[in-house]
Design goal:
- The protein is of the alpha+beta class.
- The protein has a single domain (about 15-225), classed as Maf protein (Alpha-Beta Complex).
- The protein has 5 helices and 8 strands, in the order ββαβαββαββαβα.
- It has helices spanning about 50-55, 80-95, 125-135, 170-180, 215-225, and strands at about 15, 40-45, 65, 100-110, 115, 135-150, 150-165, 195-200.
- Strands 1, 2, 3, 4, 5, 6, 7 and 8 form an 8-stranded mixed beta sheet that branches.
- Helix 3 (about 125-135) crosses helix 4.
């Protein structure tokens, strides 16, 4: 495979270096990256800190680009199809700018009954969401897409979260402590939010945080990346 060297910030405007692999990073001395991966440019089509932190666990050098994508759902679009469509759209939007790179797009859609849950954005909405979900099961569809030119790999994880019965005091205390205003469903499962659940059913524990690493690792291996 003919691949270009990973671009530096001055060569490729709009790309941000990953804290693991960027030239300006304070890299941990115990992190070892397979030399083969330096011949393949990898871009995460997201500026989400949650997804960046997850992707760092794979110890592959990568960079980030914010995708310009309209995330408005189609009328009556099923949540799982919405998540996959947006993951594809994010990856393709960035891949069009950097055709030699492998680009990762990801999206997560939370659904409760016939309602799609977005990010609360504020304290009042977070309290309302958690009050509505108390004692109920919410389905999280987390899609990932890996694209380079005409090559496309896809995967989706479906995670089912059953909330325990929460009283108002517990909900308010949690929201004030963790302030999950930028998280679909108004919780952070990797933090204090784990205390809100009775059961989490998933094939990939990282999917609920926003990037299914088990599935993504499989796609990256199919694309030729060395993991581990």
């Amino acid at each position: 495979m003919n691949a270009k060297d990973s671009p530096t910030p001055c060569q490729t405007p709009g790309i941000r270096d990953c804290p693991v692999a960027g030239p300006s990073a304070n890299c941990r001395s115990d992190i070892r990256i397979h030399p083969m991966t330096f011949r393949m440019t990898l871009i995460l089509a997201s500026t989400s800190q949650y997804r960046q932190t997850l992707l760092q666990r794979l110890r592959l050098p990568f960079q980030t680009v914010r995708p310009d994508v309209d995330e408005t759902p189609f009328q009556n679009e099923p949540p799982s199809l919405l998540a996959q469509r947006l993951a594809d759209a994010k990856a393709r939007a960035v891949a069009a700018q950097y055709p030699d790179a492998w680009v990762i797009g990801a999206d997560q859609v939370a659904a409760y009954g016939n309602t799609t849950l977005g990010k609360p954005g504020c304290r009042t909405e977070a309290i309302r969401q958690l009050t509505e979900m108390s004692g109920n099961t919410v389905h999280f569809h987390t899609a990932v897409c890996l694209v380079q030119a005409l090559q496309v790999y896809r995967a989706i994880d479906d995670t089912h979260v059953r909330f325990r019965s929460l009283n108002h005091e517990e909900i308010v205390r949690y929201v004030d402590l963790e302030q999950p205003f930028d998280c679909a469903g108004s919780f952070k499962s990797e933090g204090l939010g784990i205390s809100l659940f009775d059961v989490i059913q998933s094939q990939d524990p990282t999917a609920l945080i926003g990037l299914p690493l088990i599935a993504l690792s499989r796609l990256l291996r199919q694309a030729g990346f060395a993991l581990p």
